[in-house]
């Protein structure tokens, strides 16, 4: 019995009703050589467990049956040491004396009407938690790529969002691009970086439909919602999280001003006609990162080599060279530096004064300030709270990598399921993914 249990554990099985056959040499598995495929480790066993009730009439079968021959099946087990491992199992067939229906022995280790065993199924999904392709999973488990795809896709179709989970007091939300022209909507725990859910649409109607599945009592416990300045879904977020403060992510506050500097710089470059000899053009073209750098980090006491113009200059002289011909660029640059300083010092008052006193000058910064005014409450909350979408940006990086690993997904459902299984399951497979369906 102890040898049988050891074989069970090595094969990943748990049902002690399975009795393995050991030959006269004490061997319980044999290598089957195949010229076309990998060698297979073959185990042989018997299963003779009668069901408690007849699956047809429900009549107790404890003493109301008789043996009706056997069936032989070949089942796939988890791969081991690079070998494909299979079990040739002889299953006892029974006939009910009440309805005369026949059935075979069953085991909790096997999936109905499938040659894939549950231990192999779990091995596939344990590998799917890693950032590897289905083709590589198929190679490791010694299955065909199409079989692995069918197994994962079947479980993906049965996935149901766990709307009973407790929402944290800080929630991070953002959009994520998963196909050309298609954006999803994701939610993250702002305290622990735990992934909550991803949905395929980001329009107001869909967001209301998704989030309303969480109970009102659950949503009322959310105190802070961190998001970017996307006007598309602020309205449903305010309605669905009535007690939450909307916080604009500080990175997006700075990024908006930075894009205005970039846009104005490119505009100036296009206006200049003599691109070959103009020093301003060469300075803006080759040193664009310099104009995005915070002034507090610029060393003004020493000269710096500037590419394009091919000379050493003091940083302040390089700035004045551009500013004297393009004063509007100086205005945009100064506003950007003020935003950087407010972010660095974590003080909202100077930024608020800048927003209120700003005068339009027909540059991209006009649109930026207009956006700041529209989301002034969320920007102020960003300076009063430490919450940010930094955790979510890291998650977005992982989501994009999942798509790159598979060279894209034709079916968005499979893409989302792979995202969920990798981000939800840090240690063990959660119950919502355990659908033994092939």
Automatic annotation (TrEMBL):
Transmembrane segments: none annotated. Coiled coil: none annotated. Residues 171-419 form the Transposase IS204/IS1001/IS1096/IS1165 DDE domain. It comes from the Bacteria. Pfam families: DDE_Tnp_ISL3. InterPro entries: Transpos_ISL3, Transposase_DDE. This is ISL3 family transposase. It comes from Paucilactobacillus nenjiangensis. The lineage of its organism: Bacteria, Bacillati, Bacillota, Bacilli, Lactobacillales.
């Amino acid at each position: 019995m102890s040898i049988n249990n050891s074989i069970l554990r090595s094969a990943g099985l748990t049902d002690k009703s399975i009795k393995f056959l050991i030959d006269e040499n004490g061997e319980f598995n044999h290598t089957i050589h195949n010229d076309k495929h990998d060698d297979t480790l073959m185990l042989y066993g018997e299963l003779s467990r009668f069901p408690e009730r007849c699956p047809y009439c429900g009549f107790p079968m404890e003493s109301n049956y008789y043996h009706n021959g056997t069936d032989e099946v070949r089942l796939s087990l988890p791969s081991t040491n690079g070998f494909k491992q299979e079990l040739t199992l002889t299953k006892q067939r029974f006939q009910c004396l009440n309805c005369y229906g026949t059935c075979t022995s069953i085991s909790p280790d096997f999936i109905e009407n499938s040659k894939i065993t549950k231990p192999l199924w779990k091995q596939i999904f344990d590998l799917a938690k890693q950032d590897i392709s289905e083709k590589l999973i198929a190679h490791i488990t010694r299955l065909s790529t199409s079989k692995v795809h069918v197994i994962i896709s079947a479980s993906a179709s049965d996935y149901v969002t766990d709307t009973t989970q407790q929402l944290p007091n800080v929630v991070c939300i953002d959009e994520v691009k998963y196909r050309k022209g298609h954006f999803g909507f994701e939610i993250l725990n702002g305290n622990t970086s735990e992934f909550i859910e991803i949905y395929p649409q980001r329009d107001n109607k869909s967001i209301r439909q998704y989030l309303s599945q969480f109970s009102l009592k659950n949503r009322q416990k959310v105190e802070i919602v961190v998001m970017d300045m996307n006007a598309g879904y602020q309205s449903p977020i305010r309605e669905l999280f009535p007690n939450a403060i909307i916080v604009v992510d500080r990175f997006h506050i700075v990024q908006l001003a930075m894009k205005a500097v970039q846009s104005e710089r490119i505009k100036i470059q296009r206006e200049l006609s003599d691109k070959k000899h103009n020093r301003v053009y060469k300075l803006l073209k080759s040193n664009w990162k310099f104009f995005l750098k915070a002034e507090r980090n610029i060393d003004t006491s020493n000269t710096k080599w500037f590419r394009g113009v091919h000379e050493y200059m003091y940083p302040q002289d390089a700035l004045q060279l551009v500013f004297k011909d393009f004063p509007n660029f100086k205005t945009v640059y100064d506003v950007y530096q003020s935003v950087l300083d407010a972010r660095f010092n974590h003080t909202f008052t100077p930024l608020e004064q800048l927003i209120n006193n700003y005068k339009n000058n027909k540059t991209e910064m006009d649109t930026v300030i207009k956006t700041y005014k529209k989301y002034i409450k969320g920007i102020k909350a960003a300076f009063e709270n430490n919450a940010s979408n930094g955790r979510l940006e890291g998650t977005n990086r992982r989501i994009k990598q999942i798509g790159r690993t598979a060279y894209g997904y034709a079916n968005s459902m499979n893409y989302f399921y792979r995202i969920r299984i990798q981000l939800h399951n840090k240690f063990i497979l959660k119950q919502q993914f355990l659908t033994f369906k092939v």
